[in-house]
Amino acid sequence: MPSKDTTTEKNETTGNLVTVYIMGKPYEVPSELTIMKAQEYAGYRLIRGVGCRGGFCGACTTIYRKREDYKLYIDLACQTKVEDGMYLVQIPFVPAEKPQWNLEDLEANSDSIIHFFPEITRCVSCNACTQACPQNLSPMRAIQAIRRNDLKMAADLSFDCVSCGACSVRCPAEITHYHVFQLVRRLVGRYVQKRAEHTAERVKEIEAGEYDADMDILVGLPEEELKELFVRIREGNPLQLPEREVGKHD
Amino acid sequence: MTEPYPEYMMESVRKVEATREERKDKEFDRVSDDEAMEILKEWHPDYRKSDPEFFREIAVGPSKGKTVPTEVANVLEAYPWVDPKSVDLSVIEHDAEVFVIGTGGAGLAAILWANNEGVKMEDIVVSTKLRLGDSNSKMSQGGIQACDGEDDSPLIHWLDVMSGGHWTNDRTLARQLVMNGPSMIKWMELLGAEFDKHDDGGMQELMAGGASRKRIHSCKDYTGLELERVLMDEALSRGMRVLEFCPTVSLLTDDSSNVTGGLVWNLETEEYHVVRAKTTVIATGGFGRLHVAGFPTTNHYGATCDGVVMAYRAGADIVHMQSTQYHPTGAAYPEQIVGLLITEKCRSMGAQLVDAEGEAFIYPLETRDVESAAELRQIREGKGVKTSTGQMGVWLDTPLIDEIRGEGAFEEGLAAIHRLYARFDIDASKYPVLVHPTLHYQNGGIAINADAQAIQPNGEPIGRLFTAGETTGGVHGDNRLMGNSWLELLVYGRRAGISAARLASKTKMPRKSDLKLTHLTRYSEELQKSGVKTERCSPIILPNYLGENTMAPVGYGKETPFDRRLDLFT
Ligand SMILES: Cc1cc2nc3c(=O)[nH]c(=O)nc-3n(C[C@H](O)[C@H](O)[C@H](O)COP(=O)(O)OP(=O)(O)OC[C@H]3O[C@@H](n4cnc5c(N)ncnc54)[C@H](O)[C@@H]3O)c2cc1C
Ligand code: SF4
Ligand code: SF4
Ligand code: FES
User: Fold this and answer.
1) Are B404 and B430 within one domain?
2) Is the model's pTM score more than 0.90?
């Protein structure tokens, strides 16, 4: 029989150490760690700059430079490996107010977006946002699609955005892309995509009580009978309840 | 083209490639209930109840005597890290009609529906551990179930839920779950969530493991991200008041054991805030970061079982805590991503589990517990692949997806997974990826009734305490099916919000003298008497991953309540 799994997240050293500079201070850390785990290894208990630890939440935006390289990089700390000679700092928060809106009062066009975010008309097509995006999206193209009134395209281009704010800290037009994109996608989901008729139909049937009587019977059946029913429906057959008087279940 | 894996792994990859063509259209035998049980008994960590390394009986509290994983027992058999004598409860910082703890899907649904029910946004106080929306909800990839298909019905969905839970679910709770499925999808649709749809607006639906109909609704493989951010945006647009980086560390109670609010700890300023509330909703999510049975986890950083701990001390029963969901496909290579989820949608779209010899050893869409156990079996029988760091795994044959559905299908439908591996120069649409079971979901939790009230062992509700989402137990019984959790958090988050709002409208604001921590004092006394010798403190709020030879910068590690959690993980 197996014993306990030993692959916990405890940072295990397997070999090489590299030096990274966390906010300027040098620390030796195992080379196979991500920036996030390296900081913990070095003794930082993370509160800001951490969340899902899996590349989904955008909380861990980190800027860094590498040895003998003038370029400034932006990445997610949980998804990026340390390199020897890396100078890094996490961005704890990207300052930006989210305007309040009511979807029901808006239409799906670029005017709605520009009303809340007039600054998007100041985009100078410098592409700095795209270069910064750790998700390899093209915020620039998404912003331009909005201006062309192609909200669907903008929604598609920004769908994988994790709101890390990397683009926004680089943007000379001071656009807060992730707030812009959120509004775009909601408008597309609400007004551009067609509604699912079959979902609405089923809601109506349920609200009209069409399933209640059968449900009453079903939930009262003994386990053995339920198992048999399940085997049959799993093979693709329609559900047939045993003949019984409604309300009389054992 | 360079090969993405070291040679010792490529040897096995070639065996997988060699059998791919013939496996492509393979008809798998589904395992019977009896066979499933046999595999589980032999190989699943949950079935090691008599091994004290894995399980023990809780020595204190309302569910005393129930068997739970040792890691859960550790946080329950622990002293509250709030010292009741050291907190001044007379300075009330926030007054709430409804106090919501946690901002995953369940918390946000509760907030929005309490608001729909007439509670003003400024009267809803929200505590969340880290950044707003940091949660398991945001990480979920695969999708959400709801029975809106032509060949589907609430009855069929109900049977699937029950079968998935090995018929141990609370039947009424499961009924409420499925009956509200389609209306929750419609709600999300109207809030502007972008589901994967056909051109006519019909939902593209996939099969979940253990289910008998296609009813997974997805938003690419960022379903949770999309639904969570839509809920967040709606709540912020309505003017939500949220205390970020402010976990709740204890409930407050009055002399009749009603819950009267909570005590919040500001992680940044390191001070307490008192929240006085007419009603309270716990929506704190799961326990992945307890690393049950030593497994890596898919969960977010803050998934530390806090809600269960707090409700338990206030008198709630806990149910189904003896069963834990290990997801069969956690990443096993490369080292940086060990434990991360490779969504079940891969298997829904055609990927198979294949061992080191190239054999597909199980139908890819059995329930998760059976899939995980079958992998552990192959590995222990020597048919696993071992990486250079000692991590074992089997292959998930992802290239099948493009083979079956056409070139580009993988990247289109599984963008997050594609990106995850591309960062390590692995093209998962061309090469299989190595997987191992990973700790995924807290099946059990706080016992609830159909109104989402937390209940005691005798079935009586705890006054003014509601709870929803992964922190609760009963809806899924001993095992949850993919996609039913997001459904649960919407259905029961909504239920909790409505119930709390209705009760709040009939309840007076607690008096200052009703804000007490006596339940903690009682709990500590019981713990002391129980004979359990421990210095552990809980809730633990965050796990400890500091390096062993920590080179902590000067000034760190000063003695705060926050630091007393350390011994749990060392
Ligand atoms: C990687 C992954 C993939 C998944 N995929 C799917 C899927 O495809 N389909 C599906 O249905 N389900 C899926 N699940 C499961 C599902 O996402 C979760 O079960 C569900 O989101 C739980 O929602 P919740 O609101 O109950 O908890 P969470 O979303 O985890 O939210 C809990 C919230 O409470 C906060 N919190 C915790 N403790 C405290 C405290 N002490 N004080 C204040 N706040 C606190 C947290 O910070 C967080 O905001 C997946 C889970 C993971 C981890
Ligand atoms: S678009 Fe901007 S906020 Fe979104 S992921 Fe890319 S850099 Fe981050
Ligand atoms: S960084 Fe700003 S100005 Fe430059 S392309 Fe992007 S959105 Fe336009
Ligand atoms: S911690 Fe969430 S993206 Fe890095």
Assistant:
1) yes
2) yes
